[in-house]
Specification:
This protein is α/β, with parallel strands linked by helices. The chain folds into two domains: 206 residues, Rossmann fold (3-Layer(aba) Sandwich), CATH 3.40.50.2000; 186 residues, Rossmann fold, CATH 3.40.50.2000. Helices cover 41% and strands 13% of the residues. The protein is built from 16 helices and twelve strands. The strands form two sheets. The chain has a six-stranded parallel β-sheet, with helices on both faces. Helix 4 crosses helix 5, helix 8 runs parallel beside helix 9 and helix 8 crosses helix 14. The longest helix has 19 residues. It is globular, with a radius of gyration of 21 Å. The chain starts with 18 loop residues before the first strand and ends in an 18-residue tail after the last helix.
Length: 417
Protein backbone atom coordinates (compact mmCIF):
# COMPACT_ATOMS: atom_id res chain seq x y z
CA UNK A 1 0.00 0.00 0.00
CA UNK A 2 1.50 3.36 -0.95
CA UNK A 3 2.17 5.92 1.75
CA UNK A 4 -0.48 8.56 2.33
CA UNK A 5 2.01 11.01 3.82
CA UNK A 6 2.89 13.73 1.35
CA UNK A 7 4.93 16.88 1.10
CA UNK A 8 4.44 19.51 -1.60
CA UNK A 9 7.26 17.84 -3.53
CA UNK A 10 6.15 14.29 -2.82
CA UNK A 11 2.66 15.09 -4.03
CA UNK A 12 4.04 15.43 -7.55
CA UNK A 13 5.22 11.83 -7.54
CA UNK A 14 3.52 8.96 -9.32
CA UNK A 15 2.10 7.36 -6.18
CA UNK A 16 -1.12 5.50 -6.88
CA UNK A 17 -4.38 7.10 -5.90
CA UNK A 18 -5.98 10.52 -6.29
CA UNK A 19 -4.27 13.68 -5.10
CA UNK A 20 -6.57 15.85 -3.03
CA UNK A 21 -5.59 19.44 -2.27
CA UNK A 22 -7.22 20.36 1.06
CA UNK A 23 -7.35 23.90 2.44
CA UNK A 24 -8.37 24.84 5.98
CA UNK A 25 -7.91 28.24 7.61
CA UNK A 26 -8.71 27.81 11.29
CA UNK A 27 -8.83 25.26 14.12
CA UNK A 28 -12.39 24.05 13.51
CA UNK A 29 -11.67 23.61 9.79
CA UNK A 30 -8.45 21.78 10.61
CA UNK A 31 -10.36 19.28 12.75
CA UNK A 32 -13.11 18.86 10.15
CA UNK A 33 -10.62 18.40 7.31
CA UNK A 34 -8.64 15.86 9.34
CA UNK A 35 -11.74 13.72 9.81
CA UNK A 36 -12.50 14.01 6.11
CA UNK A 37 -8.94 12.94 5.26
CA UNK A 38 -9.23 9.92 7.57
CA UNK A 39 -12.53 8.95 5.94
CA UNK A 40 -10.98 9.31 2.46
CA UNK A 41 -8.16 6.97 3.51
CA UNK A 42 -10.69 4.42 4.68
CA UNK A 43 -12.84 4.74 1.57
CA UNK A 44 -9.85 4.27 -0.76
CA UNK A 45 -7.98 1.66 1.26
CA UNK A 46 -5.23 4.21 1.87
CA UNK A 47 -4.74 4.95 -1.84
CA UNK A 48 -4.99 8.71 -1.58
CA UNK A 49 -2.50 11.56 -1.34
CA UNK A 50 -2.86 14.97 0.22
CA UNK A 51 -1.40 18.43 -0.28
CA UNK A 52 -2.61 21.86 0.76
CA UNK A 53 -2.83 24.10 3.81
CA UNK A 54 -3.77 22.94 7.29
CA UNK A 55 -2.89 22.67 10.93
CA UNK A 56 -1.77 20.11 13.46
CA UNK A 57 -4.71 17.74 13.06
CA UNK A 58 -4.38 17.57 9.30
CA UNK A 59 -0.67 16.95 9.80
CA UNK A 60 -1.53 13.76 11.70
CA UNK A 61 -3.27 12.56 8.54
CA UNK A 62 -0.19 13.13 6.41
CA UNK A 63 -0.42 16.74 5.27
CA UNK A 64 2.66 18.95 5.14
CA UNK A 65 1.18 22.42 4.89
CA UNK A 66 2.35 24.85 2.22
CA UNK A 67 2.56 27.48 4.98
CA UNK A 68 1.35 27.83 8.60
CA UNK A 69 -2.44 27.72 8.75
CA UNK A 70 -2.40 30.25 11.61
CA UNK A 71 -1.70 33.00 9.07
CA UNK A 72 -5.26 32.57 7.79
CA UNK A 73 -6.96 32.41 11.21
CA UNK A 74 -8.27 35.97 11.33
CA UNK A 75 -11.70 37.48 10.87
CA UNK A 76 -13.51 40.80 10.90
CA UNK A 77 -12.98 43.81 8.64
CA UNK A 78 -10.67 45.74 10.93
CA UNK A 79 -8.68 42.61 11.75
CA UNK A 80 -8.18 41.56 8.12
CA UNK A 81 -7.20 44.91 6.60
CA UNK A 82 -3.71 45.18 8.18
CA UNK A 83 -2.93 41.64 7.03
CA UNK A 84 -4.08 42.01 3.43
CA UNK A 85 -0.54 42.03 1.88
CA UNK A 86 0.40 38.76 3.60
CA UNK A 87 -2.96 37.17 2.81
CA UNK A 88 -2.56 38.07 -0.86
CA UNK A 89 0.91 36.50 -0.93
CA UNK A 90 -0.47 33.32 0.60
CA UNK A 91 -3.36 33.35 -1.85
CA UNK A 92 -0.96 33.55 -4.79
CA UNK A 93 1.20 30.84 -3.26
CA UNK A 94 -1.79 28.53 -2.84
CA UNK A 95 -2.97 29.09 -6.40
CA UNK A 96 0.54 28.37 -7.74
CA UNK A 97 0.63 25.14 -5.75
CA UNK A 98 -2.69 23.99 -7.25
CA UNK A 99 -1.52 24.76 -10.78
CA UNK A 100 1.80 23.01 -10.15
CA UNK A 101 0.40 19.89 -8.53
CA UNK A 102 -2.70 19.47 -10.72
CA UNK A 103 -4.71 17.64 -8.03
CA UNK A 104 -7.76 15.55 -8.82
CA UNK A 105 -9.88 17.88 -6.68
CA UNK A 106 -9.47 20.91 -4.42
CA UNK A 107 -11.43 20.76 -1.18
CA UNK A 108 -11.71 24.05 0.70
CA UNK A 109 -13.00 23.80 4.27
CA UNK A 110 -14.88 26.73 5.80
CA UNK A 111 -12.93 30.08 5.81
CA UNK A 112 -15.02 31.35 2.87
CA UNK A 113 -13.14 34.63 2.49
CA UNK A 114 -9.93 32.83 1.57
CA UNK A 115 -11.56 29.76 0.03
CA UNK A 116 -13.64 31.56 -2.60
CA UNK A 117 -10.83 33.93 -3.54
CA UNK A 118 -8.67 30.87 -4.13
CA UNK A 119 -11.46 29.22 -6.13
CA UNK A 120 -11.71 32.30 -8.35
CA UNK A 121 -7.97 32.21 -9.04
CA UNK A 122 -7.80 28.51 -9.90
CA UNK A 123 -11.12 28.12 -11.73
CA UNK A 124 -9.44 28.36 -15.14
CA UNK A 125 -7.23 25.38 -14.28
CA UNK A 126 -10.19 23.01 -14.71
CA UNK A 127 -9.52 21.34 -11.36
CA UNK A 128 -12.89 20.59 -9.71
CA UNK A 129 -13.59 22.44 -6.46
CA UNK A 130 -15.60 21.18 -3.50
CA UNK A 131 -16.35 23.54 -0.63
CA UNK A 132 -17.10 21.99 2.76
CA UNK A 133 -19.21 24.07 5.22
CA UNK A 134 -21.53 26.61 3.70
CA UNK A 135 -21.04 30.28 4.50
CA UNK A 136 -23.99 31.48 6.54
CA UNK A 137 -25.44 33.57 3.75
CA UNK A 138 -28.94 32.72 4.95
CA UNK A 139 -28.05 34.88 7.96
CA UNK A 140 -26.27 37.69 6.15
CA UNK A 141 -26.84 38.45 2.48
CA UNK A 142 -28.80 35.68 0.76
CA UNK A 143 -28.36 37.17 -2.71
CA UNK A 144 -24.61 36.58 -2.55
CA UNK A 145 -25.24 32.84 -2.80
CA UNK A 146 -25.75 33.17 -6.55
CA UNK A 147 -22.08 34.16 -6.91
CA UNK A 148 -21.00 30.79 -5.52
CA UNK A 149 -22.46 28.68 -8.33
CA UNK A 150 -19.79 29.55 -10.94
CA UNK A 151 -16.95 28.99 -8.44
CA UNK A 152 -17.54 25.50 -7.09
CA UNK A 153 -18.63 22.09 -8.33
CA UNK A 154 -20.21 20.94 -5.09
CA UNK A 155 -21.08 22.42 -1.72
CA UNK A 156 -21.16 20.14 1.32
CA UNK A 157 -23.42 21.55 4.04
CA UNK A 158 -23.82 20.79 7.74
CA UNK A 159 -27.30 22.03 8.59
CA UNK A 160 -30.54 20.41 7.40
CA UNK A 161 -32.18 23.57 6.05
CA UNK A 162 -29.20 24.65 3.92
CA UNK A 163 -29.83 22.53 0.78
CA UNK A 164 -33.22 24.15 0.24
CA UNK A 165 -31.65 27.59 0.62
CA UNK A 166 -28.73 27.05 -1.78
CA UNK A 167 -30.64 25.16 -4.47
CA UNK A 168 -32.66 28.34 -5.11
CA UNK A 169 -29.40 29.99 -6.21
CA UNK A 170 -28.21 27.14 -8.45
CA UNK A 171 -25.51 25.90 -6.07
CA UNK A 172 -24.99 22.09 -6.31
CA UNK A 173 -25.42 21.01 -2.72
CA UNK A 174 -25.17 17.90 -0.54
CA UNK A 175 -26.25 17.67 3.12
CA UNK A 176 -23.73 15.52 5.00
CA UNK A 177 -24.63 16.24 8.65
CA UNK A 178 -22.81 18.18 11.33
CA UNK A 179 -19.33 17.00 12.39
CA UNK A 180 -20.00 17.53 16.09
CA UNK A 181 -21.75 14.16 16.04
CA UNK A 182 -18.35 12.55 15.49
CA UNK A 183 -16.47 14.56 18.08
CA UNK A 184 -16.88 11.93 20.79
CA UNK A 185 -18.28 14.43 23.27
CA UNK A 186 -21.05 12.28 24.75
CA UNK A 187 -20.69 9.92 27.68
CA UNK A 188 -17.72 11.68 29.29
CA UNK A 189 -16.50 10.70 32.76
CA UNK A 190 -17.26 13.78 34.85
CA UNK A 191 -16.41 12.32 38.28
CA UNK A 192 -13.17 10.92 36.92
CA UNK A 193 -12.20 14.33 35.53
CA UNK A 194 -12.89 16.03 38.85
CA UNK A 195 -10.89 13.39 40.73
CA UNK A 196 -7.90 13.72 38.37
CA UNK A 197 -7.81 17.50 38.74
CA UNK A 198 -8.58 17.72 42.45
CA UNK A 199 -12.01 19.31 42.03
CA UNK A 200 -14.54 18.40 44.71
CA UNK A 201 -17.88 16.90 43.78
CA UNK A 202 -19.72 20.00 45.07
CA UNK A 203 -17.35 22.59 43.59
CA UNK A 204 -19.09 24.76 40.96
CA UNK A 205 -17.23 24.23 37.69
CA UNK A 206 -17.70 26.33 34.55
CA UNK A 207 -16.37 25.44 31.10
CA UNK A 208 -15.09 28.49 29.19
CA UNK A 209 -14.74 28.54 25.39
CA UNK A 210 -13.20 31.89 24.35
CA UNK A 211 -12.67 31.06 20.65
CA UNK A 212 -10.04 29.61 18.36
CA UNK A 213 -8.88 32.76 16.53
CA UNK A 214 -6.46 35.35 17.85
CA UNK A 215 -8.95 38.15 17.20
CA UNK A 216 -11.67 36.30 19.10
CA UNK A 217 -9.68 35.46 22.21
CA UNK A 218 -8.36 39.02 22.35
CA UNK A 219 -11.96 40.25 22.62
CA UNK A 220 -13.22 37.62 25.06
CA UNK A 221 -10.52 36.59 27.51
CA UNK A 222 -10.57 39.70 29.68
CA UNK A 223 -14.35 40.06 29.97
CA UNK A 224 -14.77 36.32 30.58
CA UNK A 225 -12.23 36.48 33.39
CA UNK A 226 -13.96 39.44 35.02
CA UNK A 227 -17.31 37.65 34.74
CA UNK A 228 -15.92 34.63 36.56
CA UNK A 229 -14.56 36.88 39.27
CA UNK A 230 -18.03 38.34 39.83
CA UNK A 231 -19.63 34.91 39.74
CA UNK A 232 -17.22 33.61 42.39
CA UNK A 233 -18.70 36.08 44.90
CA UNK A 234 -21.94 34.09 44.98
CA UNK A 235 -20.53 30.62 44.22
CA UNK A 236 -17.79 29.80 46.70
CA UNK A 237 -14.88 27.79 45.35
CA UNK A 238 -15.83 28.40 41.72
CA UNK A 239 -13.31 26.99 39.22
CA UNK A 240 -13.04 27.05 35.43
CA UNK A 241 -12.01 24.63 32.70
CA UNK A 242 -10.67 26.08 29.44
CA UNK A 243 -10.13 23.85 26.38
CA UNK A 244 -7.46 25.58 24.28
CA UNK A 245 -7.19 25.59 20.48
CA UNK A 246 -3.53 25.10 19.42
CA UNK A 247 -3.36 28.30 17.34
CA UNK A 248 -4.17 30.51 20.34
CA UNK A 249 -2.67 28.42 23.16
CA UNK A 250 -0.02 30.92 24.36
CA UNK A 251 -2.46 33.85 24.53
CA UNK A 252 -5.18 31.86 26.28
CA UNK A 253 -2.76 30.29 28.74
CA UNK A 254 -1.24 33.65 29.71
CA UNK A 255 -4.60 35.37 30.19
CA UNK A 256 -6.44 32.54 31.94
CA UNK A 257 -3.75 32.11 34.55
CA UNK A 258 -4.42 35.73 35.60
CA UNK A 259 -8.13 35.08 36.19
CA UNK A 260 -9.35 35.41 39.81
CA UNK A 261 -10.53 31.76 39.99
CA UNK A 262 -8.63 28.45 39.71
CA UNK A 263 -8.31 27.39 36.07
CA UNK A 264 -7.76 23.97 34.50
CA UNK A 265 -6.25 24.37 31.03
CA UNK A 266 -6.84 21.58 28.52
CA UNK A 267 -4.44 21.47 25.59
CA UNK A 268 -5.44 18.73 23.17
CA UNK A 269 -8.81 17.06 23.00
CA UNK A 270 -8.20 13.96 25.11
CA UNK A 271 -10.15 15.19 28.15
CA UNK A 272 -12.71 17.40 26.47
CA UNK A 273 -15.67 15.02 26.80
CA UNK A 274 -14.81 14.35 30.44
CA UNK A 275 -14.49 18.09 31.10
CA UNK A 276 -17.90 18.80 29.59
CA UNK A 277 -19.43 16.03 31.70
CA UNK A 278 -17.75 17.40 34.83
CA UNK A 279 -18.94 21.00 34.42
CA UNK A 280 -22.16 22.53 35.70
CA UNK A 281 -22.47 25.22 33.02
CA UNK A 282 -20.51 26.83 30.20
CA UNK A 283 -19.63 30.30 28.95
CA UNK A 284 -19.00 30.07 25.21
CA UNK A 285 -18.09 32.31 22.35
CA UNK A 286 -20.78 31.97 19.67
CA UNK A 287 -19.71 29.37 17.10
CA UNK A 288 -19.39 25.64 16.56
CA UNK A 289 -18.45 25.16 20.20
CA UNK A 290 -22.05 25.87 21.17
CA UNK A 291 -23.18 22.79 19.24
CA UNK A 292 -20.46 20.75 20.96
CA UNK A 293 -21.85 21.84 24.31
CA UNK A 294 -25.40 21.02 23.20
CA UNK A 295 -24.31 17.55 22.12
CA UNK A 296 -22.66 17.06 25.51
CA UNK A 297 -25.84 18.27 27.29
CA UNK A 298 -24.00 21.12 29.04
CA UNK A 299 -26.17 24.22 29.68
CA UNK A 300 -24.56 27.43 28.48
CA UNK A 301 -24.48 31.19 28.15
CA UNK A 302 -23.35 32.42 24.73
CA UNK A 303 -21.36 35.61 24.20
CA UNK A 304 -19.67 37.45 21.38
CA UNK A 305 -17.66 40.62 20.89
CA UNK A 306 -16.23 41.97 17.64
CA UNK A 307 -14.41 45.16 16.71
CA UNK A 308 -16.61 48.26 16.54
CA UNK A 309 -16.47 48.58 12.75
CA UNK A 310 -17.04 44.87 12.19
CA UNK A 311 -20.01 44.96 14.57
CA UNK A 312 -21.51 47.99 12.78
CA UNK A 313 -21.30 46.21 9.44
CA UNK A 314 -22.84 43.06 10.90
CA UNK A 315 -25.79 44.96 12.37
CA UNK A 316 -26.59 46.36 8.93
CA UNK A 317 -26.63 43.04 7.10
CA UNK A 318 -27.65 40.34 9.59
CA UNK A 319 -31.01 38.76 8.75
CA UNK A 320 -31.57 36.26 11.59
CA UNK A 321 -32.69 37.12 15.13
CA UNK A 322 -30.09 34.94 16.89
CA UNK A 323 -26.32 34.60 16.93
CA UNK A 324 -25.85 31.08 18.32
CA UNK A 325 -26.45 27.90 16.34
CA UNK A 326 -28.68 26.25 18.98
CA UNK A 327 -31.07 29.19 18.86
CA UNK A 328 -30.92 29.46 15.06
CA UNK A 329 -31.70 25.76 14.62
CA UNK A 330 -34.64 25.85 17.02
CA UNK A 331 -35.95 29.23 15.94
CA UNK A 332 -36.24 30.38 19.53
CA UNK A 333 -33.99 31.59 22.34
CA UNK A 334 -33.06 28.44 24.16
CA UNK A 335 -29.70 29.70 25.42
CA UNK A 336 -29.13 33.30 26.59
CA UNK A 337 -27.06 35.41 24.20
CA UNK A 338 -24.89 38.33 25.32
CA UNK A 339 -23.68 40.06 22.17
CA UNK A 340 -21.56 43.23 21.78
CA UNK A 341 -22.82 45.85 24.28
CA UNK A 342 -24.49 43.12 26.34
CA UNK A 343 -21.25 41.14 26.55
CA UNK A 344 -20.17 42.64 29.87
CA UNK A 345 -18.80 41.02 33.00
CA UNK A 346 -21.92 41.88 34.98
CA UNK A 347 -24.39 40.53 32.42
CA UNK A 348 -22.40 37.35 31.82
CA UNK A 349 -22.08 36.73 35.54
CA UNK A 350 -25.80 37.33 36.08
CA UNK A 351 -26.78 34.88 33.32
CA UNK A 352 -24.37 32.23 34.59
CA UNK A 353 -25.57 32.72 38.16
CA UNK A 354 -29.16 32.06 37.07
CA UNK A 355 -28.09 28.91 35.22
CA UNK A 356 -26.06 27.56 38.14
CA UNK A 357 -28.79 28.35 40.65
CA UNK A 358 -31.87 27.09 38.80
CA UNK A 359 -32.21 23.40 37.88
CA UNK A 360 -35.37 24.19 35.87
CA UNK A 361 -33.36 26.47 33.55
CA UNK A 362 -30.74 23.76 33.03
CA UNK A 363 -33.44 21.15 32.38
CA UNK A 364 -35.13 23.39 29.80
CA UNK A 365 -31.86 23.79 27.90
CA UNK A 366 -31.24 20.03 27.96
CA UNK A 367 -34.70 19.38 26.52
CA UNK A 368 -33.85 21.74 23.65
CA UNK A 369 -30.51 20.04 23.13
CA UNK A 370 -32.33 16.74 22.58
CA UNK A 371 -34.28 18.40 19.74
CA UNK A 372 -31.05 19.71 18.21
CA UNK A 373 -29.36 16.32 18.28
CA UNK A 374 -32.21 14.91 16.22
CA UNK A 375 -31.91 17.73 13.70
CA UNK A 376 -28.16 17.48 12.99
CA UNK A 377 -27.85 13.68 12.83
CA UNK A 378 -28.81 12.48 9.33
CA UNK A 379 -29.66 8.84 8.78
CA UNK A 380 -26.91 6.51 7.58
CA UNK A 381 -23.16 7.00 7.61
CA UNK A 382 -21.31 9.51 9.82
CA UNK A 383 -20.82 13.00 8.35
CA UNK A 384 -17.13 12.48 7.52
CA UNK A 385 -17.95 9.34 5.52
CA UNK A 386 -20.78 11.07 3.70
CA UNK A 387 -18.45 13.97 2.88
CA UNK A 388 -15.71 11.61 1.68
CA UNK A 389 -18.19 9.82 -0.58
CA UNK A 390 -19.25 13.14 -2.10
CA UNK A 391 -15.62 14.16 -2.73
CA UNK A 392 -14.81 10.81 -4.33
CA UNK A 393 -17.84 11.14 -6.61
CA UNK A 394 -16.27 14.31 -7.98
CA UNK A 395 -12.89 12.58 -8.35
CA UNK A 396 -14.46 9.62 -10.14
CA UNK A 397 -16.34 11.91 -12.49
CA UNK A 398 -13.08 13.61 -13.48
CA UNK A 399 -11.30 10.28 -13.96
CA UNK A 400 -14.15 8.90 -16.03
CA UNK A 401 -15.05 6.10 -13.64
CA UNK A 402 -18.72 5.19 -13.21
CA UNK A 403 -20.32 6.88 -10.25
CA UNK A 404 -21.89 4.83 -7.47
CA UNK A 405 -24.32 6.24 -4.92
CA UNK A 406 -22.47 7.05 -1.67
CA UNK A 407 -23.14 4.43 0.97
CA UNK A 408 -25.46 5.46 3.77
CA UNK A 409 -26.61 8.75 2.30
CA UNK A 410 -30.14 10.05 2.19
CA UNK A 411 -30.16 11.87 -1.12
CA UNK A 412 -32.63 14.34 -2.50
CA UNK A 413 -31.95 14.53 -6.22
CA UNK A 414 -32.83 18.18 -6.54
CA UNK A 415 -30.38 19.05 -3.76
CA UNK A 416 -27.38 17.30 -5.25
CA UNK A 417 -25.54 17.04 -8.50
Amino acid sequence: MPSTTSTPAAAESTLEGPLIFVVAGEASGDALAARLMAALKTATGGRVRFAGIGGTRMATQGLVSEFPMAELSIMGFTEVVPRIPRLLRRLRQSARAVRRLRPDVVVTVDSPGFAFRLARRIRSSSVPIVHYVAPQLWAWRPGRARHMAPLIDRLLVLLPFEPDFFKDFGVPCRYVGHPVIEAGLTGGDGPGFRARHGVGAETPLVCVLPGSRHTEVAKHLSVFGRALGRLARSHAGLAAVVPIAPAVAPAVRAAALEWPVPVILLEGGDEKADAFAACDAALAKSGTGTLELALADLPMVVAYRAGALTAAIVRRVVRVPYASLPNILLGRELVPEKIQADCTASELAEALDALLSDEALRAAQRAGFAEIRGMISPDGAPPSERAAAAVLEVVNAVRGAPLAPPAGTRENAENAT
